[in-house]
Amino acid sequence: MRGRGSLLVMPVVLAMTPPVAAADLLIVLNKSGHEAVLVDPATLEIVKRLPTGTGPHEAAVAPDGRTAYVANYGAYRLFREGEQPTLVRGHTLSVVDLVKREVTDTLDLGEFLMPHGIWVSGDGTKLWVTSEATQTVLEVDLATGRIANQWKTGQEVSHMLVPAPDESKLYVANIGSGSCTIIDRMSGEVTTVETGKGAEGIDVSPDGGEVWVTNRAAGTISIIDAKVNRVVETLEAGGEFPIRAKFTPDGREVWVSCMRSHAVHVFDAKTRKIVAKVAVKENPIGIQMSPDGAQAFIASTNANHITVVDVNKREVTGGFSPGEEPDGMAWAQTPKGR
Question: What is the pLDDT of residues 66-124, one digit of tens each?
Fold first, then answer.
């Protein structure tokens, strides 16, 4: 791994928040800080800062809570007004030991550049990650660190990834092609469904029945029936640049970050109606829910800020500054013994 210089320590802004399990950790990735920040979600205090590769965008945690994997996408400063983005093509994954709280390994993906959407299988043996630059989804064997399988999407800018609850399928949002690719892991069949311009955010309902895709350029949300792999409804996002979607754990709501509206729109998953709009700081992108569904953490990249929202009340309860250009987040249950 490449070494780095001293880390910039950002001030932490504390506020009253509902209690969460003290053993949990919130992992925040700072794209321009090139680091993963471990945060105590109960106090919003930063526990540790860890250097990653260049431009970390998304993270995934093993089901035992002991290890996190970070996709070092490379590019950063993407949405800064008046600034040119830094377009680097990353090719590595950082491995974070959450018990030791240190980066212990780097997995080199070689020719598979710009890894982004990432997920660890429920049994902890496999990792799925998109290679945006090569229109590929990879399956990595975590015991060996080697690529065990790969699927070509044939689509431009294959960005975010989420599996079906039973992991039989992988769903990929393709920004450049305005589509969703569906990979059947058992048969190897790859199907692509047109959604809308700038398809980026994606999530699957907890029962596996629906896939919601946010089309940032079109300003719409496409709802795919997972049984027939077909768009059955298209909604107006109600805000500019819808860029992420996140189901609440109970499946009743879908939270959508509308980046250029500086707000998160809350949809009733059944009626498809917007039931609330929560104003947050500049350029919200990443959304992370606490496992109990009580809190949402919203990453505002240009404001270098994480906003904490009470999900039931739909009210901002606090926030903190993790570092430079926060975006991707993940949640980990700290192993017993710490």
Answer: 999 999 999 999 898 788 889 999 999 999 999 999 999 999 999 999 999 999 999 99
- For every residue of 231-282, DSSP letters joined together read EEEEEE-SSS-EEEEEE-TTSSEEEEEEGGGTEEEEEETTT--EEEEEE-SS
To 5 degrees, how large is the angle CA 150–CA 151–CA 152?
130
Residue 111 token pair:
């020719």
End-to-end CA distance of the chain: 27
Asked whether 245 and 284 are in contact (CB, 8 A), the reply is no
In single-letter form, the type of residue at position 249 comes to P
pLDDT tens digits for range 119-156: 999 999 999 999 999 999 999 999 999 999 999 999 99
Domain residue ranges of the chain, discontinuous segments joined by + = 24-333
Structure tokens at 126: 């496999």
Report the topology of domain 24-333: Methylamine Dehydrogenase; Chain H (2.130.10)
